[in-house]
Amino acid sequence: MRIFNTDTMSTAGEANWTREGLQHLVTTKLAGRLFIVVSNREPYIHTSAGGEIQCLVPASGLTVALDPVMRSCGGVWIAHGSGNADRDVVDEKGHVSVPPDEPSYTLRRVWLTKEEEEGYYLGFSNQALWPLCHIAYTPPNFDESHWNTYRRVNQLFAGAVLDEVGDKQAIVFIQDYHLALLSRLIKAKNARVITAQFWHIPWPNPEAFRICPWGEEILDGLLGNNILGFHIGYHCENFLETVRRMLEVKIDYERSAVSRGGETTLVRSFPISVDFDRIAIDARRQEVVKEIEQIRRRWRLSDEIIGIGIDRIDYTKGIPHRFRALDKLFTKYPEYQKRLVFFQLGEPSRVHIKKYKELNAEIDDLVEEINWKYESDNWRPIIYVREHLPPTALLGFQRLADFCIVSSLHDGMNLVAKEFVSSRVDNDGVLILSRFTGAARELTEALLVNPYAIDDFAETIKRAIEMPRGERQERMRKLRQIVRQNNIYRWAGGILSELADLKL
Ligand code: F6P
C-alpha cells in the first residue's frame, strides 16, 4: 500500500520553525477564526496544600508540548479540571487565564463527577483504548458501562466546545484517545466547525483493533475530522487498513484520504516534538546549575557515573526491563558496582487502576531486590525518586546525567528522549532509546535497544558508559540538530498549514 506521507520532519538546510513563524501562519492564514484546543489533561493544575494554592505543570508530554503552541496562537484550551483547587481560581464559565506568570490564552475547565472520571478516564480510555493501542501484552478491559460513560463525557466536552464557538468561525484541535467521538458530536450540531485530531498513542494493526466491541463507532467518530494526525506513517497505514476492513469507505491512497458519506478525512503523520530553544535556554539558567549542586549534595555524589530514567509510571515504559538490564550489567561487569548510580524519576499515574498498582509494587520490589543484592557502605545502585518534580529539578538531572534510558515497550513518540537531547547544551551525554518508540525513527544517533533483550540492553548500557567523549559529542550534536529543526512549532505548523490548505 502506498501512503502519501506529508511527514513534517525536515531535512538539513531547511529553515527552522519558530514561535514567531507559527504566529505568522496563524495571523495570515487562519485569521479571524477562533482557535480551540481540547484535551483531557489540562496544562495547569491548581492544587491547595496547607491553605496555599499552587499551580502545577502535569507530567504529560502532550500538555508540555502544546503549551508553547497555545502561548503563540492564543485562543481557548478546553480540558478536564482535575486539581483540588481548580474551581477556586476560575470564573463562572470555568475560565482562567494561563500561564500564571505570562497569561497568553484561556483555559476552560470541564468538570467531571468521580463516576464520570472512573468510567471515561480510568475506565474506557485507560483500561480499554490504552492497552488496545499499545502492544505491551496487557489485555484491554471492555466494560459497557465505561463505554457509556465515555460517550457521555465526549458529549459533555462537545457542549463546552459548542458553547465557546457560538456563531464564530472556529478551528478545533482535538487531542488523543480520550475524545474519539468529539468531532462527530460537534459537527452534528455545527457543521461549519473545522476539526483536526491528533492521536498521541500508536494505532494498532487491524487484527489487534478489531477486538474492540465499539470499534466501528470509534472509527466513525475519528472520521468526523477534516484531518487526523499520527506520529509516524506506520500508524497512518494501520489506521487506513483498519477503516478499510471495518467500514464502507473509499480510500484514496495517493492523497491518504478517507471518504465516507460525502465527507473526507486526510490522514497524515506529524511527529510531535518539544520547544527545543526554550528548553536549551532554561537548561543554561543559574537555577539549574544550583539544582545540580543540590542533587550532588542531597545524594552525596562524588564522581560516580550517573544514569537517569524519567517516566510517568506506566507499564508501557519498560521500567522493570531497564532495571533487569542494570542488574545484568552489575553481575556481568562487577567493576561498575560502586561506580554507577541510576536515578529513576517517576511520577505515579492512573494509580486507581489495578494494573498500575501491580506495576508500582513490581517496581518497588525490583528496586529493593537489586539494591539489596549490590549495595555497600554508602552506595546504592538505584535511587528511585517517586514524586512530581518541577521542570528545574528535571533539567538538573538531565544535565547531570552521563546517560538517559528511554526503554518503552511501545510508545507513539516519547518526548522525554527529545527533552533530554534539548537540555544537553554541553553537547554531551548518551541517549539509550527503545526501538519501539516513534522517536527512534528520528533519533537514529541514539543507542537503539530492544528492551525485551535484556543481555543486549545491558551491553548497550556498557557501551554508553564507555563511549569515547568524541563519539558522544558527535552523536549528541547530530541529535540536537534533528530536534532543533523538527521542533514543536514545525509539528503545529505542519498541522495548521494543512488545515489552511483545506480552504474551507
Ligand atoms: O501519550 C498519551 C498520553 O495520554 C498523553 O496524552 C499524555 O501526555 C500522557 O499520556 C499522560 O497521561 P495522563 O494524562 O493519563 O496522565
What does this structure look like?
The protein has helices at residues 19-29, 61-73, 114-133, 144-165, 182-189, 206-209, 215-222, 233-246, 276-283, 286-298, 319-332, 354-374, 391-400, 415-423, 454-466, 469-485, 488-501, and strands spanning 34-38, 45-49, 52-56, 76-80, 95-98, 105-110, 170-175, 194-198, 227-230, 250-252, 257-260, 263-269, 305-312, 340-347, 382-385, 403-406, 430-434, 447-449. The chain is built from 17 helices and 18 strands. It folds into two domains: 19-273, Glycogen Phosphorylase B (Rossmann fold), CATH 3.40.50.2000; 278-485, 3-Layer(aba) Sandwich (Rossmann fold), CATH 3.40.50.2000. The relative contact order is 0.12. The two termini are 29 Å apart. Helix 1 (19-29) packs parallel to helix 17 (488-501) and helix 11 packs across helix 15 (454-466). 43% of the residues lie in helices and 18% in strands. The protein is globular and about 70 Å long. Strands 5-6-4-1-7-8-9-12-11-10 form a ten-stranded mixed sheet, sandwiched between helices. Strands 15-14-13-16-17-18 form a six-stranded parallel sheet, with helices on both faces. The chain has a two-stranded antiparallel sheet with strand order 2-3. It has 504 residues and is of the alpha/beta class. Bound molecules: 6-O-phosphono-beta-D-fructofuranose.
